[in-house]
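Hey Z.,

So I finally got round to the adenosine-5'-triphosphate thing we talked about over coffee. Here's the setup:
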Amino acid sequence: MSAPVVHFAGVTHDYVTPGGVTRALDGVELRIESGERVALLGPSGCGKSTLLGIAEGLIAPTAGGAYLDDVKICKPHSDAGVVFQKDLLLNWKTVLDNVLLPVRLRKERVADYRERALALLKDVGLADFADSRPTELSGGMRQRVAFCRALVRDPDVLLLDEPFGALDALTREQINTDLSSMMDTTQATAVLVTHSIEEAAFFADRIVVMSPRPGRIAEEIVVDVPRPRPAWPTVDHRFDEVLDRARRAITSRKAAA
Ligand SMILES: Nc1ncnc2c1ncn2[C@@H]1O[C@H](COP(=O)(O)OP(=O)(O)OP(=O)(O)O)[C@@H](O)[C@H]1O
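And the result:
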């Protein structure tokens, strides 16, 4: 079965607090095709995480709806692989058990996934750490484990919310390259929220630039660089035009805000 289309249809979201109402998203219309990778780029507070929360079923939009194929997302669904800025690993479990956690949560046979879990850890250079505890790992290593966990059940939707946000620049570059080769093993429809133009270009088939709050779709940029993409975008001139366009899109929205 192919990965689902993720469709945000006229999504508006208001946060209601004692201090008043904040409109975070305003009529977002975005269709992400089966197996497509989209990066959401936009100024802080423009509603990127809110949009991802709606795709996860954790946030119910005030108006409009999000759909997986034609099925409206009405409640949290555990089929998506998710990675957040904070890795959320369980420090009292081994690295391997952390990777296998989604399997256990769904009460599936752990033995069926053990080899895939070990292979994913090997792909990201952590084969020797399967029996370690997350506390023994660096931030970058922990985030690699979080990616293995998100991919272990080969989900058909991947939602990545600033997964590299807490890492230093060098580690980010390396982990982006690792993620890129891990992504070669999945056909999932994927959404990456990021503040980094380079990360967006490296990851995505299409960059979606959002306006300042309330978030709307401001511009879409197709990243017409074939995969595999072995080099980091700033050292690969095939990305120059995409990086330029994305930079201009962000700067002009800031100026207009
Ligand atoms: N639980 C909440 N209650 C009230 N307002 C909220 C809540 N969560 C987010 N907001 C507001 O909604 C807007 C969008 O927030 P969101 O976190 O989706 O933006 P973002 O683009 O992901 O931001 P950043 O890039 O800084 O992570 C912001 O103005 C934020 O203050």
